[in-house]
Design a protein that fits this description.
Metallo-beta-lactamase, Chain A; alpha/beta; about 300 residues; about 25% helix; elongated; 2 domains; five-stranded mixed sheet
């Protein structure tokens, strides 16, 4: 099978200074404080955003980390916090929400509580179970295109499931800025880890963003995405190329994810091995659902896959 490339690779930008714990102005009325929790999954740390002047909202308060909590206290000093908004309930984004609410009295806002993208198969254990914040319960739930108005600012919800079932982006009304969470980032493509996430949902959510005219994204990790439509188009093309590469490996005789990974990924670092396995699984799960591939039993990481 010959793979026809859909589009070139996304432009990966690592030109970013975290300034851990410091309040960094982005535009008028928007500031960033980056948590010092760098890793292979979080890049240089989780970005917390503060929107407004006197009465503000906080988007993704970040991990339950004493140093980051102290940094937010300093950044918020003298200001009221009306809302704490969560793009999705992974603990590196929502872990500090309850502590910050206890201090400020702010309302917790999200699409909903943490949940899996699909039910567990018999005998299956969810990957990254520890990262899901099942303690979080929003005071206010927002559906697609719903608007939240504050003191001098307004946000509109853009539901973007895929990385997480309850993932939402938030458009800052009147600015062209979209807080994209982990759905789209400049430094890497996001991890889709079934059953927490869904490749089918993720691809549909990319199309949601392609139908918009945002000027820039402020993501949950790393620096801004400054040419968002081009970047999202390239991300979509990258995933379609990966899907075709996986399908080609199945048709050429690979039956396990380990076999496919060895052929598709080269010199992968140990800390990215599990995310790579889950990424291939996410594609295979979607291909099985669409009838392009079949599996001996449920599509699992240790499954055996065949051409349809």
């Amino acid at each position: 099978m010959t793979i026809q490339p859909h589009i070139s690779q996304p432009h990966i930008s690592t030109d970013y200074r975290a300034d851990h714990g410091r309040r960094v102005p982005i535009i008028n009325g928007v500031e960033r404080v980056t948590a010092n929790n760098p890793s292979a999954m979080t890049y240089m740390g989780t970005n917390t955003y503060i929107i407004g002047e006197k009465s503000v909202c906080v988007i993704d308060p970040g991990p339950d980390n004493p140093a980051h909590f102290h940094a937010l206290q300093l950044a918020l000093r003298g200001r009221e916090v009306s809302h704490i908004i969560i793009t999705h309930t992974h603990r590196d984004h929502s872990g500090l929400a309850l502590r910050l609410q206890e201090q400020t009295g702010a309302k917790l806002v999200a699409e909903g509580r943490h949940r899996l993208a699909r039910p567990l198969h018999p005998g299956e254990t969810a990957a990254f179970t520890e990262s899901g914040d099942r303690d979080f319960t929003p005071d206010i739930t927002l559906g697609d295109t719903e608007r939240l108005d504050g003191d001098g600012w307004a946000l509109e919800t853009v539901l973007t499931p895929g990385h997480a079932a309850n993932h939402a982006a938030f458009a800052l009304v009147g600015t062209g800025i979209l807080f994209s969470g982990d759905h789209v980032m400049a430094w890497a493509s996001t991890v889709i880890a079934p059953p927490d996430g869904s490749m089918r949902d993720y691809m549909a959510s990319l199309d949601v963003l392609l139908a918009r005219d945002d000027l820039a994204y402020l993501p949950g990790h790393g620096g801004p995405v400054l040419s968002p439509l081009d970047h999202v188009s390239r991300l979509k093309g990258h995933r379609l190329n990966r899907e075709e590469a996986i399908l080609a490996r199945v048709q050429s005789g690979d039956r396990t994810i380990d076999e496919m990974l060895a052929a598709i990924y080269h010199n992968i670092s140990p800390d990215l091995y599990k995310p790579a396995v889950l990424s291939i699984l996410a594609h295979l799960e979607d291909l099985v659902a669409r009838g392009a591939v079949r599996c001996e039993g449920p599509a699992l990481a240790d499954g055996r896959f065949h051409p349809a």
